[in-house]
Amino acid sequence: MPSPVRTCVGCRTREPAELLVRMVARDGLVVPDPGRRLPGRGAHLHRDPACLALAERRHALSRALRVPGPLDLSALRELVLGPVAR
Ligand SMILES: [Zn+2]
């Protein structure tokens, strides 16, 4: 079965969905959905800090997820960048 193609919200490259991390918005929080099981509108991103930075700079996530306000990206950031050293 051919896999669906999705666009990375950071670099805008089209990729098979399994190469990208899916995420959904829930209560203003971006929730990574690696299993691609959560309901609702999803956005896709390479697991790459450069793509995350691009997506943040363009406010691409709130646009892709159709959320008007600011989004909490901490869970996504932790997935892409690893645990943040404080
Ligand atoms: Zn990308």
Overview in brief:
This protein is an alpha+beta fold and 86 residues long. Helices cover 26% and strands 23% of the residues.
How would you describe what is shown here?
With 86 residues, the protein is α+β, with helices and mostly antiparallel strands. It has one domain: 2-Layer Sandwich (Hypothetical Cytosolic Protein, Chain: A), CATH 3.30.1230.10. Helix content is 26%, strand content 23%. It is built from 3 helices and 5 strands; from the N terminus they run βββββααα. It has a 3-stranded antiparallel sheet. Strands 1-2 form a two-stranded antiparallel sheet. Strand 3 and strand 4 form a beta hairpin. Residues 8, 10-11, 13, 46, 48, 51 line the site of zinc ion.
